[in-house]
Design brief:
The radius of gyration is 27 Å and the shape is elongated. The longest helix is centred in the first third of the chain and has 34 residues. The chain has two domains: 131 residues, no CATH class; 259 residues, no CATH class. Helix 19 links the parallel strand 5 and strand 6. The chain is mostly helical. It has 20 helices and six strands. Helix 3 runs antiparallel to helix 6 and helix 6 packs across helix 17.
């Protein structure tokens, strides 16, 4: 790179400059996406089928290409904007030794004197001016965007694979519901004391009756007994009994949970403006001496452990409610389905927290891989190699815990809400109901769907947060 200002790397670029450029890239990309969506809706309303298909081809272009294109445009301007050297040397991710070296390189690389003119950035180095963000730093940002696109796909695929693997283990319990032994042991005409049923007995010990101890037990229960057979069978029975499926129906609850997980996965794969904002904040406060990489890496495990504890506590509350309502139960105890068990009565808030955790955790792991590839393990970003090992170990653990434990528990417990999801029906039936709802809205004048709809969709889960 000729000229000092054009040669500053990302490790010598202020975090506020990186965060600003990323914010501009994200805003422009989101506006383009929103604009394409509105154009597509207009074509659809006008019945321009060919234009809708053509627009669909444009949308098929990977988001990373859009980000890279926008980054190129932003890079051309960022490299030409001059800022004072004092501002350019604040909030750097590298220690002071690296900062001094960067200043020397900016002032004297390629034999350029302090009073020389930077041929690319157009900044008077002799007057203490540097580029807002150098062309080389923009190039490294391109690499980071590429890493983010590729590894986000791999990360989300691993999340789905682990979640499906956990739910697949419940298939044997579902098969058991069709056996004669199951029908005999859970005969609806058979009366039992509520506290003698497996579900109530497992969740109404002395520790579960005291609120403080209940949360402690729930915290550890997510690691060892995340979903037990009695939990699955009881919630399955409660769901089938309360929803309009018929008590004696041969409903495959395990397949329904799997479809529900796939429905929630649509939300998890997407990246909302709130998540992009959290990523920009992370880049902004990534300053040397603040140990940001380590402290921010603790946020995902804290959130996911709190969510897992909450979900386990909900299962316990349902068992306690059965014991309080009934001394004797007939057949399998029926759990009470209600949204009031969840924070603010919104199951979608739990899904948002899981989504936020997976995004933040994946972002930190991808950021580590990008630093390793671009600067090496011994770069200035890694102030302590021990903290690096701890961050990676925490990230991998959170990925496994969230994907294999917390997300499947949510897919099961969220069925205990006040409204069932549209995945209770197969794909064709769900499409037919959706089309019927759209037609009904048009007949009423095109208003939005009623808030009292019996179905909950991924969009509602997202907005419910």
């Amino acid at each position: 790179m000729a000229g000092g200002s054009s040669g500053r790397k990302m490790d010598q670029t202020p975090s506020w400059a990186v965060a600003t450029v990323c914010t501009v890239i994200i805003i422009i990309s989101l506006l383009l996406e929103k604009g394409l969506h509105r154009i597509g809706k207009w074509f659809s309303d006008k019945h321009k089928r060919a234009m809708v298909e053509a627009l669909g081809k444009i949308k098929d272009v990977d988001d990373s290409r859009v980000h890279l294109l926008v980054a190129d445009v932003c890079g051309d301007y960022a490299d030409k904007i001059c800022v004072p050297l004092s501002a350019g040397n604040t909030m750097l991710p590298c220690p002071s030794g690296k900062r001094s070296q960067a200043k020397k390189e900016a002032e004297g690389s390629c034999g350029i004197s302090r009073s020389a003119w930077s041929p690319r950035g157009g900044c008077w180095l002799g007057q203490g001016k540097v580029a807002f963000m150098s062309a080389y730093a923009i190039h490294q940002l391109h690499i980071f965007i590429f890493f983010l696109a590729i590894f986000h796909l791999l990360y989300t695929a691993a999340t789905m694979a682990l979640g499906r693997a956990k739910i697949r283990r419940w298939k044997e319990w579902e098969r058991e519901t069709s056996s004669l032994d199951y029908e005999f042991s859970n005969d609806p005409s058979r009366f039992r004391f509520a506290h003698e049923t497996s579900f109530v007995r497992q969740h109404t010990s002395f520790w579960d009756r005291i609120p403080f101890l209940l949360y402690i037990v729930s915290f550890f229960r997510q690691f060892f007994w995340s979903v037990r057979k009695a939990d699955y069978l009881t919630m399955r029975h409660g769901f089938i009994s309360v929803n309009p499926l018929g008590p004696g129906t041969r409903f495959d609850f395990q397949k329904y949970i799997k479809r529900s997980l796939e429905d929630d996965f649509v939300v998890i794969v997407s990246i909302s403006p709130i998540l992009w904002a959290s990523a920009v904040i992370f880049l902004l406060i990534n300053v040397h001496g603040w140990h940001t990489l380590f402290w921010i890496s603790l946020v995902p495990p804290v959130i996911i452990l709190v969510v897992g504890t909450k979900l386990q506590a909900i299962i316990t509350w349902m068992a306690l409610e059965i014991k309080e309502r009934h001394v004797v139960v007939q057949g399998i105890p029926v759990v009470q389905l209600s949204d009031h068990h969840f924070w603010f009565g919104k199951p979608g808030l739990v899904l948002f927290l899981i989504h936020f955790t997976l995004f933040q955790n994946g972002f930190h792991l991808i950021y580590f891989l990008w630093i390793w590839y671009t600067f090496g393990l011994n770069s200035c970003f890694h102030e302590s190699f021990g903290l690096v090992i701890a961050r990676v170990a925490i990230g991998v653990s959170v990925q496994i815990l969230c994907s294999y434990v917390t997300l499947p528990i949510y897919a099961l417990v969220s069925q205990m809400g006040s409204r069932m999801k549209r995945t209770v029906f197969d794909e064709q039936a769900a499409k037919a109901i959706t089309n019927w709802q759209k037609l009904a809205r048009k007949r009423r004048g095109g208003g939005k769907s009623s808030t009292h709809s019996p179905f909950r969709t991924p969009t509602e889960s997202r907005s419910g947060a």
